[in-house]
Amino acid sequence: MQWKIAEYAGWGRVVRARGTLARPENLPALATALAGRGPAIGNRRSYGDGPLNDGGAAIEMTRMDRLLAFDPETGVLEVEAGATIAELLRVFAPRGWMPAVMPGTGFATVGGCIANDVHGKNHHNAGSFGQHVLGLRLMTDQGPREVRPEAEPALFRATMGGQGQTGAILSAKLQLQPVPGQRMRVKETRIRDFDSFLAAFDSSQAEYTVGWIDATKRGKRLGRGILEEGTLAEGGRPGPRRRAITVPLDAPRLALSWPVVKLFNAFYISRIPDTSRKRTRPLEEFFFPLDRIYDWNRLYGKRGFHQFQCVVPLDKGPELKAILETIAKAGIASPLAVLKKMGPGRAGHLSFPMAGYTLAVDFPARKKVPAIFAKLEQQVLDAGGRLYFAKDALAHPDNIAAMYPELSAWRAEIAKTDPDGRLATDLVRRLNLRTVA
């Protein structure tokens, strides 16, 4: 294993870091890399500065991706932290099992899913990723340490959604869920406006739900879009696997200009008839739709993009509607705008989910975006909501304690596991997560 000096970034490509990186392949190499160095990171699918350590060192865990043990009767899997969610789905769906919670990209690693306590399209039913972790192994100064929720609840909760600050995650035991086949039956319904969207979420009985919103529309058509409802189905994978499309160059600014986005959104919604549409899709195409476009972040150009993702309580629908109105008036949103309903499930002190509605919108990096984001952040704060660390690069540190009321409990646990702050990342420092400003 060798250290190399590299420039790297999160998925949004706006915030970058320069420092030394190592990619250990086994436990002895990892122990050597961690000695006096920096945080462990995954596939850098967090959008902002969560996986960055500018001017310092970081240990990329992607080569530690072995499947260690699996019980086909119970669906309990032990796997190294560098394995990706897409690989788990590919290997185990044909055997009748799959991860209980999957984020919107299959390129996320198991360690990254734990560090951000990610959620999926079934959060209202299944909760967060960390709620299906039965135990894990952390690398500490004294060597590997087994952590189970029933034995060390405080440390376990500090690790779930804890941004890797309790130590490098070596492996985890996951409770997979049974799956009847490799197909998803999907119903797509055109939704006319924001209020109708929330009503559709509240009345849906589907296990998996997600909404696409046309963030360019205002007035009576504010929040129009498409609701997808998914049901797991029997049968083998429908059709051959499609090859990923490559984006070879950074797209010009015109590619996601406001007129182009409006035209694309009009076309996208026109595909769905008024009577809705039903179809059968492979599991990975339903769960990871954008993974078919490899390096799709290059469509935003060399300056990259920001994502704003918030969640507000269930009774704050009007406030979320006002947030969407602010976005529409700004005239800078991309075609990627997603709405989901969430349940109360969360595994850690700094876990993002709460019972409510979550909205995620991409913004191409422009000079006016920070000011727009600041206004949106205040609206979220006033609504009693919070922002998602996995997507953030612009939040203000003064607002974090109000959004995450268990922050002080998390800080107390981190002070025990990493008192010298060796594992801090750029996000942790920017938001003063470990210290009171």
TrEMBL record:
Q: SUPFAM superfamilies of this UniProt entry?
A: FAD-binding/transporter-associated domain-like
Among InterPro entries, the record links this protein to: FAD-bd_PCMH, FAD-bd_PCMH-like_sf, FAD-bd_PCMH_sub2, FAD_lactone_oxidase-like, Oxid_FAD_bind_N
**Keyword tags:** FAD, Flavoprotein
Signal peptide location in the record? none
Outline the extent of the FAD-binding PCMH-type domain.
Answer: 14-179
Query: Mind telling me which Gene3D superfamilies this protein's record contains?
Result: 3.30.465.10
* Alphabetized GO MF terms: FAD binding; oxidoreductase activity, acting on the CH-OH group of donors, oxygen as acceptor
Which PANTHER family does its entry note?
D-ARABINONO-1,4-LACTONE OXIDASE, L-GULONOLACTONE OXIDASE
> What's the protein called, per UniProt?
Decaprenylphospho-beta-D-ribofuranose 2-oxidase
